[in-house]
Amino acid sequence: MQQPLKILFVSSEVAPFAKTGGLADVSAALPKVLKDMDHDVRIVMPKYGSINERRYTLREVIRLKEISVSVGGKVVHANVKSSFLPDSKVQAYFVGSNEYFNRPGFYVDPETNQDYPDNAERFSFFSRSALEILKKLHWQPDIIHCNDWQTALIPYFIKKLYKENSFFVGTKTLLTIHNVAFQGIFDQKALPLVYVTKDEFTSNCAFHFWGKVNFLKAGILYADLLNTVSKTYAKEIQSCDEFGFGLQTVIKKRSRYLFGILNGIDDQHWDPETDKFIPVQYSKSDLSGKMDNKRALVESQGLVFQPEVPVIGMVSRLTDQKGLDIVSKVLDDILNLDVQMVVLGVGEKKYHERLQKATTKYPKKLAVNFCFDNELAHLIEAGADMFLMPSHYEPCGLTQLYSLKYGTIPIVFSTGGLADTIKHFSPDTPRGYGFVFNEYTAENLIKTIESAIDVFQDKETWKKIMNRAMKLDFSWHKAAEKYVDLYYRLKT
After folding, report:
1. The predicted structure's pLDDT at residue 1
2. Which 3 state secondary structure label does DSSP give 160?
3. pTM for the full predicted model
4. pLDDT band at 428 (very low <50, low <70, confident <90, very high)
5. How far apart are CA 343 and CA 325, in angstroms?
6. Under DSSP, is residue 128 helix (H, G, I), strand (E, B) or coil?
7. Interaxial angle between packed helices 374-383 and 288-300, expressed in degrees from 0 to 180 and rounded to the nearest 10
8. How far apart are CA 233 and CA 228, in angstroms?
9. Burial level of 401, CB count in 10 A (0-12/13-18/19+)?
């Protein structure tokens, strides 16, 4: 039997402490399951100003007060506090600095809606702090699991700045790329933060990216292993600039060290049998509660409940990446069908305006909520009949997995994690549990929606599709086993 591992999980956001997207959910769920598998896993994240210390019982750790951290040419002190992930025994360490993290936003200044100009310095400090914490704790991890550009300096620091330090001799690094579109690209003022001189900053430098400094690129080149969050996305980001965002050649050079592992879902929070946010709980063996939730959803949105009319739900950022460009082109066509539609999300101004106009034109068919409301997100998953997620690219996606769990049939474009998780229904096969289009056009989108509506009219067939979807297992336990396999691969 293999020995339990010591794993440090480093992330810039972890739910429920701090969240902007799916990274936070992954950073909470995966460590919990690893702990349940008897591994010694701990988390390091920034102590943002918005984190409520009393609510989450953050405590001072004497040996972690006033840790001296070198940031380029200066020394900054990190004050680290500790707590536990709620409902778990996973210890979390919070890197505090009034200079860097006591701000209203995590990455973006809410007043300007622009990235903080010192983000390179902030996350260089964070990455160095994570390593200094380990030394102060005298806790030597087998694996440091890094996530996205904010922690991508850690593999580089270990192999460059700490290469003579015996403390890290047995420590290996895994870097997970959650979305390669976000790379941590900065001007050359960031070079001192990574201890590279201007003379060294040539095209052969690990950080060099069209004259800019690229944190993620260096992490890709220095991490012992890499993974991303679906097998298809792992192939896509090596294929072309559209998916690799300029790093496709670099990633392809390391393809033998790159793996695709689908994210899981936290079924403690996303399960129609136990969901506290929905009016009526239900299961695949008793779907009666689904209709009650449908009524609750449409009536909460000011629409008239019509049991025979399919409800299309959408919970998404309202951006091009999420498919709003093609949705907006055929929005009138969609709403001229015999459907109702409920949208939840925020995003680009042009899509807010487009959807707002449509609600005026189709007040009995469309309801839009320009916000993020967790309770409403659960109700949409439980009350809608179909879930629209036509992302142009999608590394993994979680909401389509929630939809399957709730028997809300996804309509998706075949890309990334959507291609890996949603199998197209055809009357000729009993295997499909979604509706998938393979060419990214508005015309294909509307044809696929029309096809789904046609099948919806056949209640027995639709019930079979729902049952098939709800039987699928996308829990974190399966994903965690694959991560553990990677960890042990690093130790051999």
Report:
1. 62
2. helix
3. 0.92
4. confident
5. 15
6. helix
7. 130
8. 7
9. buried
Average pLDDT over residues 415-426: 96
**Total H helices, total E strands in the chain:** 17, 21
Q: What is the mean pLDDT of residues 454-480?
A: 95
Residue 440 token pair: 């990214």
Dist. CA 336–CA 204, nearest whole Å = 56
In 203-303, where do the E strands start and end? 208-209, 212-214, 225-228, 258-260
DSSP 93: E
Question: What is residue 244's three-state secondary structure?
Answer: helix
Taking residues 267-289, report their average pLDDT: 95
Lowest mean pLDDT among 27-31, 268-272, 356-360: 268-272
Asked if residue 326 lies in contact with residue 442, where contact means CB atoms within 8 angstroms, the answer is yes
What DSSP string runs through 26-45?
HHHHHHHHHHHTT-EEEEEE
Nearest to 317 by CA among 393, 242, 376, 372: 372
pLDDT at position 429 is: 74
**Of 233, 263, 266, 244, which is closest to residue 419 (Cα–Cα)?**
233
Phi, psi at 15, each rounded to 5°? -75, 145
> Which has the closest alpha carbon to 484: 92, 21, 147, 36?
36
Contacts of 251 (CB under 8 A, 6+ apart): 180, 220, 226, 237, 238, 244, 258
Helix%, strand%, coil% for the chain, nearest 5:
40, 20, 40
Close Cβ partners of 256 (under 8 Å, ≥ 6 residues apart): none
Helix (H) or strand (E) holding 342: strand 340-344
